[in-house]
Amino acid sequence: MAHQAHSYHMVDPSPWPIFGAASALLTTSGLAMWFHYNSTQLLIMGLTSMLLVMLQWWRDIVRESTFQGHHTLTVQKGLRYGMILFITSEAFFFLGFFWAFFHSSLVPTPELGGQWPPMGVKPLNPLEVPLLNTAILLASGVTVTWAHHSITEGNRKQAIHALTLTILLGFYFTALQATEYYEAPFSIADSVYGSTFFVATGFHGLHVIIGSSFLSTCLLRLIKFHFTSNHHFGFEAAAWYWHFVDVIWLFLYMTIYWWGS
Amino acid sequence: LRQISRRTISTASRRQFENRVPEKQKLFQEDNGIPVHLKGGLMDALLYKVTMGLSVFGTAYVVYELLVASMPKKQK
């Protein structure tokens, strides 16, 4: 059997990239069909195939790393660069929505009554549930760091406890935000206030759900002995993403919830 | 690449979970030429076929719907 003379990972041929592209086509076309022709068939097909591709592609990466040993330090370095670049791109994504918020709120138009919050809009009290949510996410940042330290120290039981607590805090945040959305006296249709509020916090909530899913996958892998005390990049990536989600919330809280009320 | 044997976090806890990683490592390092996305067994092949079916059929369906949507509806 020939062995490679380099430390990079030449992957096996895989169908997931092209199927992923197909699922993106189905999902975007499905959205168009839903918006214009009230038909959800394509959208459902798209989202289902997207889920299938994600599960199998990431399953294969776990196989290539934990079971086949392909993730050398060189490969890991590349993955670290990749995750940092991805998170940076997400930061720019949110930057756009913050720009939109400041565009509308710094110079409120006459249609809004020349004030922010606009005439007739009763904003949420930032010292109530939003403050609790801030505390929850900050605490989850502590628990995920605790989990990381437990992993590097080889303490399996504590790592599992700390990561579980992190995930539970994430679920608690999501549940509270859901009730806030339900109880809010304003909707997305209530002028540009509603648009900026729900689009910015809504995308943030989606990222909390994505982060919680990533952490849950790590918990499963942690329980199944996939991580070693000095090689657990999947967990580190999930922790970076979670800290990013926390930071975005802090900006949301300070600007939209607090300054904007 | 030399096979790297991994030391896991702790010695196997007898209570609940046994460390099955070595078994998986043996399965996925078997020199049988099967690509990683099918190497786990029958379930892999099934999931692959379902995903492929959905993607291929879906793409054809999109092309059809685009053709229909781009044709003017004949009035009267």
TrEMBL record, chain A:
<dbReference type="GO" id="GO:0005743">
    <property type="term" value="C:mitochondrial inner membrane"/>
</dbReference>
<dbReference type="GO" id="GO:0006123">
    <property type="term" value="P:mitochondrial electron transport, cytochrome c to oxygen"/>
</dbReference>
<feature type="transmembrane region" description="Helical">
    <location>
        <begin position="16"/>
        <end position="35"/>
    </location>
</feature>
<feature type="transmembrane region" description="Helical">
    <location>
        <begin position="240"/>
        <end position="260"/>
    </location>
</feature>
<keyword id="KW-0496">Mitochondrion</keyword>
<keyword id="KW-1278">Translocase</keyword>
<feature type="transmembrane region" description="Helical">
    <location>
        <begin position="197"/>
        <end position="220"/>
    </location>
</feature>
<dbReference type="InterPro" id="IPR000298">
    <property type="entry name" value="Cyt_c_oxidase-like_su3"/>
</dbReference>
<keyword id="KW-0812">Transmembrane</keyword>
<feature type="transmembrane region" description="Helical">
    <location>
        <begin position="79"/>
        <end position="102"/>
    </location>
</feature>
<keyword id="KW-1133">Transmembrane helix</keyword>
<comment type="function">
    <text>Component of the cytochrome c oxidase, the last enzyme in the mitochondrial electron transport chain which drives oxidative phosphorylation. The respiratory chain contains 3 multisubunit complexes succinate dehydrogenase (complex II, CII), ubiquinol-cytochrome c oxidoreductase (cytochrome b-c1 complex, complex III, CIII) and cytochrome c oxidase (complex IV, CIV), that cooperate to transfer electrons derived from NADH and succinate to molecular oxygen, creating an electrochemical gradient over the inner membrane that drives transmembrane transport and the ATP synthase.</text>
</comment>
<dbReference type="GO" id="GO:0004129">
    <property type="term" value="F:cytochrome-c oxidase activity"/>
</dbReference>
<protein>
    <recommendedName>
        <fullName>Cytochrome c oxidase subunit 3</fullName>
    </recommendedName>
</protein>
<comment type="similarity">
    <text>Belongs to the cytochrome c oxidase subunit 3 family.</text>
</comment>
<dbReference type="Pfam" id="PF00510">
    <property type="entry name" value="COX3"/>
</dbReference>
<feature type="transmembrane region" description="Helical">
    <location>
        <begin position="41"/>
        <end position="58"/>
    </location>
</feature>
<dbReference type="InterPro" id="IPR013833">
    <property type="entry name" value="Cyt_c_oxidase_su3_a-hlx"/>
</dbReference>
<dbReference type="InterPro" id="IPR033945">
    <property type="entry name" value="Cyt_c_oxase_su3_dom"/>
</dbReference>
<dbReference type="InterPro" id="IPR035973">
    <property type="entry name" value="Cyt_c_oxidase_su3-like_sf"/>
</dbReference>
<feature type="domain" description="Heme-copper oxidase subunit III family profile">
    <location>
        <begin position="4"/>
        <end position="261"/>
    </location>
</feature>
<keyword id="KW-0999">Mitochondrion inner membrane</keyword>
From TrEMBL, chain B:
<keyword id="KW-0999">Mitochondrion inner membrane</keyword>
<dbReference type="GO" id="GO:0006123">
    <property type="term" value="P:mitochondrial electron transport, cytochrome c to oxygen"/>
</dbReference>
<keyword id="KW-0812">Transmembrane</keyword>
<protein>
    <recommendedName>
        <fullName>Cytochrome c oxidase subunit 7A2, mitochondrial</fullName>
    </recommendedName>
</protein>
<dbReference type="GO" id="GO:0002082">
    <property type="term" value="P:regulation of oxidative phosphorylation"/>
</dbReference>
<keyword id="KW-0472">Membrane</keyword>
<dbReference type="GO" id="GO:0016491">
    <property type="term" value="F:oxidoreductase activity"/>
</dbReference>
<dbReference type="InterPro" id="IPR036539">
    <property type="entry name" value="Cyt_c_oxidase_su7a_sf"/>
</dbReference>
<keyword id="KW-1133">Transmembrane helix</keyword>
<dbReference type="GO" id="GO:0045277">
    <property type="term" value="C:respiratory chain complex IV"/>
</dbReference>
<comment type="similarity">
    <text>Belongs to the cytochrome c oxidase VIIa family.</text>
</comment>
<dbReference type="InterPro" id="IPR003177">
    <property type="entry name" value="Cytc_oxidase_su7a_met"/>
</dbReference>
<keyword id="KW-0560">Oxidoreductase</keyword>
<comment type="pathway">
    <text>Energy metabolism; oxidative phosphorylation.</text>
</comment>
<dbReference type="Pfam" id="PF02238">
    <property type="entry name" value="COX7a"/>
</dbReference>
<keyword id="KW-0809">Transit peptide</keyword>
<feature type="transmembrane region" description="Helical">
    <location>
        <begin position="46"/>
        <end position="67"/>
    </location>
</feature>
<dbReference type="GO" id="GO:0005743">
    <property type="term" value="C:mitochondrial inner membrane"/>
</dbReference>
<dbReference type="InterPro" id="IPR039297">
    <property type="entry name" value="COX7a"/>
</dbReference>
<dbReference type="GO" id="GO:0097250">
    <property type="term" value="P:mitochondrial respirasome assembly"/>
</dbReference>
<keyword id="KW-0496">Mitochondrion</keyword>
<keyword id="KW-0007">Acetylation</keyword>
